[in-house]
Specification:
binds adenosine-5'-triphosphate; globular; 6-stranded mixed β-sheet; Rossmann fold; binds magnesium ion
């Protein structure tokens, strides 16, 4: 589904990624882990077209992504959430999801403004599928609530709902469990599993919460200073000397 090959990018003199490569299979849950500053979010920024690498290749089902602009990459079926929760706080949960659907609607802003025929029906369909998405993420009861007033766990799921509104095949989640309590994290884990099992999504997740990573991932890649230092099944990573040295061990210290 996703191919990342020999990716390098620097900021000033600092190499954020150096020759990074990995492949994510269709319907896989793939985790990227590593210490702060390892380059995990940078990988997402390159895949979604926000950063241009100095070398390397990124492909989606074999098609080159690097030549495309962010909106084109989104249209190809790539959606993401951001490390810092970014819901529109003064909009309802429902409206947050409707905004995510915007790129997908045939009727653009102009047609809506002119109220041309077809817009009403399309709007009704959009609202219907937004409600369905909220239900899938356990947010149906708060559809009319302002997003800023929701608990963080619900805001994080709302971000995922908004990302899903563009009907992606590949979903990139940047620290979806950041700041969540253990109960909220368990709910989130069940949600992510279901998205793969029932909706057939391929998911790449960046996360520091090792319970989540080890609990839901098929495979894990460990980054350190922009390089991949280990890759394998969760059980293999948990006992991998380099991974433990660079990251997992230091978690215990912390
Ligand atoms: N736009 C940018 N301008 C300058 N430096 C950047 C930029 N984006 C990332 N970097 C640098 O690249 C390195 C990797 O950053 P990145 O955000 O990818 O790390 P990360 O693995 O996501 O870390 P964290 O776990 O803290 O989120 C860091 O040294 C960071 O300061
Ligand atoms: Mg990050």
């Amino acid at each position: 589904m996703l191919g990342v090959e020999d990716l390098s990018i620097s900021f000033g003199g600092l190499a954020a990624l150096s020759g990074l490569g990995f492949e994510v299979r269709d319907r896989e849950i793939f985790a990227l882990i590593g210490p702060n500053g390892a380059g995990k979010s940078t990988v997402f920024n390159v895949i979604t077209g926000l950063y241009r690498p100095s070398r390397g290749r990124v492909t989606l089902e074999g098609g080159d992504l690097l030549a495309l602009a962010p909106h084109q990459i989104a249209r190809r079926g790539v959606a993401r959430t951001f490390q810092n929760t970014e819901v529109f706080r003064h909009l309802t949960a429902l409206d947050n999801v409707l905004i995510g659907r915007h790129t997908h609607l045939r009727a653009g802003v102009i047609r809506s403004a002119l109220w041309l025929p077809g817009v009403g029906r399309e709007e009704a369909r959009a609202r219907e599928s937004a409600h369905a998405l909220l239900a899938r993420l356990g947010l149906e009861d708060v559809a009319g609530v302002e997003a800023g007033g929701l608990p963080l766990g619900a805001q994080k799921r709302l971000e995922i709902a908004r990302a899903l509104a563009s009907e992606p095949r590949l979903l990139l989640l940047d620290e979806p469990a950041g700041g969540l309590n253990p109960t909220e994290t368990q709910t989130l884990m069940a949600v992510i599993r279901r998205l793969r099992d029932e909706s057939g999504l391929t998911i790449v997740v960046v996360e520091h919460d090792m319970e989540l990573v080890m609990g839901i991932s098929d495979r894990v890649a460990v980054l350190d200073h922009g390089r991949k230092i280990a890759e394998g099944r969760p059980g293999e990573i948990a006992t991998d000397a380099a991974a433990v040295e660079a990251y997992l061990g230091s978690e215990d210290d912390a």
